[in-house]
Each structure stands twice: as C-alpha cells, then as structure tokens.
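>> Question from a student workshop board

For tomorrow's exercise we were told to take the sequence and the ligand below, predict the bound structure, and bring the output to class. My setup keeps failing. Could a helper post the expected result so I can at least see what it should look like? The ligand is protoporphyrin IX containing FE.
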Amino acid sequence: MNLPEIIKNSEAYVAERFPVEKMSYSAMVVKKEVPVHRLSWAYYMGGLALFFFGVQMVTGLLLLFYYQPTVSDAHASVEFITDHVPGGSLVRNMHAWASSMMIAAVMVHLLTAFAMKAFAKPREITWVTGVVLLGITFGLGFTGYLLPWHQVAVNATKIGLQSVQEVGQYLPGAMAEWPRIVKETIQGEAAVGQATLSRFFALHVIILPLAMMATLGLHLLSVQLHGMSRGIDGPPKRQEKFFPTFFIKDLTVWGFAFIILFVIALCVPFESLYSYPLFEPFNPKGSTPDGIKPEWYFYFLYYPLELLPFWVILVGSTVLGAVLMGTPWIFQNTSRKTLQILTVLAALYLFVMTVFGEQIYHMFKG
Ligand code: HEM
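>> Workshop helper replied:
Here is what the output should look like for this input. Compare the format with yours to find the bug.
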C-alpha cells in the first residue's frame, strides 16, 4: 500500500468511528433512541457511574476547603473535618461511599457492555476510552486512600508501591531497573513521605480528574455519535426516545442512587466496615497493623497475589490488561452467547474473590 492509500484508509477509519456529520443536536439528542429489551437495565450503568463521578467532584471540592496535604497536618485535618466541621462527617462519608459505588457501577458497566457486544465496530473507541476510564477510576481509589495519612493507609501504599518494584526481577537487562524508577518517581523520595503525599494529592485532585474529564468527553461523544448499541441478537421489542423518555428515567435512577447514598452515608460510617482502627495517625516507628488489606475493589488481585507466586499474577494481569484493550478486535467474531458465558464467569470470579477472598486465603494458608 502506498502513502496516499494509507492516508485515505486512515481517514475512512476515523470517519467511521467519528461520523462528524452526526455531530448535531438533532442527531445526538432529538433523534437518539434506546432499544427496549430484557437487558435494557444495562443502559443505565454508564449513567450511574457518571452520576457517582459528579458526586465525587462535588464532595471532593468541599473536602478541599479543610484538607491539608502535609505529613504533619493531613491526619489532623481529616479528624477536624469529621469531628468539627458542620456536615463534614457526612460529606467525607459520602465521598468514601460514592467512591466504592462508582467503582462497582463501572465494573458492572464494563461487564454488561462486554456481554452485549457494545464494543463491536464502530464502537472501538468507546470501549478503549472506557478501559482508560477504568484505569483512572482505580488510580483515584489508590491515590485517595493515602490522603488521610493513617497507619493503615501509609503501610498499604508502601506495600502497593513495593509490588511495583518487584516487577523488575522478571524483566531482562536494563529493563529490570524500570519498575524501581517508576516506583521512586511516584514515591518521590527513598521512603513513603511528604513527597509521596504531595504527589498522590496532585494526582488525586488535579491530574487524574482532568484526565478523567478529557477521556470521559471522548467516551460520551463517541456514545452520542453512534447511539446505543442493539445489545441483543435479533430486533428489540421497540425503541424509546432518549430525550426526554430515557433521560427522565436516567434522572430517576440518579435520584434513587442519591437517596441510597445519602442514607448510607448518614447512618453507616465507612470505617465501621474495617476490623482495625483506621484513626491511628501514621507513626513511622509503629508496626504494620495485622490484617492490613487494600480496599475491597482490589481483592480480586490482592488475594491471588497472597496465594500464588508473584510472577503468575504479573503475567495474568498483563494478559488481562491486553485482552481488555484488545477486546473489540479479539472478540469481533464471537457470538453474544459466548460473550455472556464469559461475562458470567468473570462476574462469578469477581464476586467470589471480593466476598469470600479471605476465607479462601485461610483455607490454603491456615
Ligand atoms: C468513569 C467511568 C465511565 C463512565 C462515567 C461511563 C459513562 C458511560 C455512559 C454515560 C454511557 C452511555 C449509557 C450506557 O450505555 O450505559 C456509556 C456507554 C458505553 N461505555 Fe462507558 N463509562 C465508563 C467506563 C466504561 C468502561 C470501563 C467501559 C468498558 C471498558 C465502557 C464502555 C462503554 C461502551 C462500550 C458503551 C456503549 C454502550 C452501548 O452503545 O450500548 N465504559 N458509558
């Protein structure tokens, strides 16, 4: 193929993924329709993730009024927010609960988009930007965990960063040094300290949210340009108007989500789910608390990591990342039936590891 042909083919490829002729209010809003069928509930999942992201932006901005990103004051400022700022405990609790709810919504959204084959041509960019959004969402969870600067958070972050460095032992030659360099760049100094807190703070409140907004913009533009995918084999029962019918239903789902979040945040302090005292400020001379674990949404990786050799998890997660990124091309000819079986297996694995991971760990390690 010569250069003009390559350029022409690339133009055709991009034009099919981003049909600018559809970039109008009429095509993207007035004429948009949503198929009605047995899996229609799945079309609410992306919107739900979007709603929780909005909650995180609002509650996170409110927390910023009082939070101090320094090793000496971070813990005390979080305690001050919880105990002395009017509504502070509620806002902090909503931020913590909504982060978990957002991750759960994103996971369900990914699984249903996969089962419905919503990644297929011409929606490759919607899918790939979705995988990036998943990475950013996990990144926000990981960086946010350190900010209260308590004993568990700092030690868990140390363990997380240490596992990045351990990747080096499996890489050849000069590449063996790369993970250590990555770890030290994130950490900012020899041990987890002020430089780490400053970097995690910058990542959590500026860099990752900006990256999220840019990627989300592309994701949603691509969704609006292509309309909703059919989602099932065969024709849907009927189509309903996106605006106002589906949009009002979306808002109703958001209203219920808000009520549930508000009531839970009001009644159940997030920390009460943990068996160790979260409120101990970090003490560099203190011991690593027993039973220290990451947040629940990392259990699917954490428990296998505790049970299996590190290299098995490393290979497994690299393959998983590559398969997720390559899904639109790897599974382009796979039937929805097979995709649905794979989805059920993946959901079962996530459920079992998240809910029974600890029991499985004790079964093997005593
Ligand atoms: C912060 C995270 C995310 C947000 C806020 C978000 C938001 C949305 C929204 C609002 C929609 C349209 C409604 C719907 O189909 O549910 C959508 C569609 C879609 N999303 Fe996401 N998404 C996120 C992450 C992901 C992830 C992790 C994936 C998969 C890797 C993904 C893949 C898709 C696909 C393929 C569609 C098109 C669905 C269709 O046409 O039927 N998204 N997303």
